[in-house]
What does this fold into?
Amino acid sequence: MQDVENITPYGTDSRDKAEQVREMFDAIAPAYDFMNRAMTFGIDRLWRRKAVKMLASAHHDEILDIATGTGDLAIRMAGTLDPLSVVGVDLSEEMIEIGRRKVSDAKLNEVVTLGIGDCLLLPFPDSTFDAVTCAYGVRNFADIEAGYREMHRVLRPRGTVLIIELSTPQSSVVRPFYNFYTRTVIPTIGRIVSKDVRAYSYLPESIAAVPQGDAMCALLSAAGFDAPRAIPLTFGTCTIYVAKKN
It folds into this structure.
């Protein structure tokens, strides 16, 4: 299987993965929220709700949301966890602009700040945040372990990292239906709705190749995190990973 870090949105394009990911999300930004709801039948909201509930066992004053996209997770954390601040960063200016409008509509401007940021070179000092999150973004990292090291660097001691990532069901009953849906139905709808020919073909390719379960936990451990856990959801189509910084 090809390494997910070498799978890029536009295939043979000579630009590095980060540049291609930025272009892809700029292109699909207007359709992104609709496609998330449509292709998961709205279950993505339940996954985010579950993740935020897991964070609620401890108070977090400052939270960083990496690959924040249009801000769905940042907004939910701000509205549920009562933090002092939630900072969201993303490569895509178009996604951030949509996110800022959603933050304003939710009347959360005093709590949530969204801006441009690279997961491999975060523009924050060491030990800045009590929690660092990333929803559906790790597959797009050019170097996953390096991204995790950056999360570890900006996290305060005893802080929490929480990753939500799409994954592949292991059930022999579920997997054939899942493969047909992700490899045929989603790319077809994606091409029609987003007008980007490659974006929703890249999606199932990257899900199939991203480290999952124990392999993802091993990357978190290698980056310095303590006792990472994997919590599969909805027949294994999504997994939450959570770990601590000592």
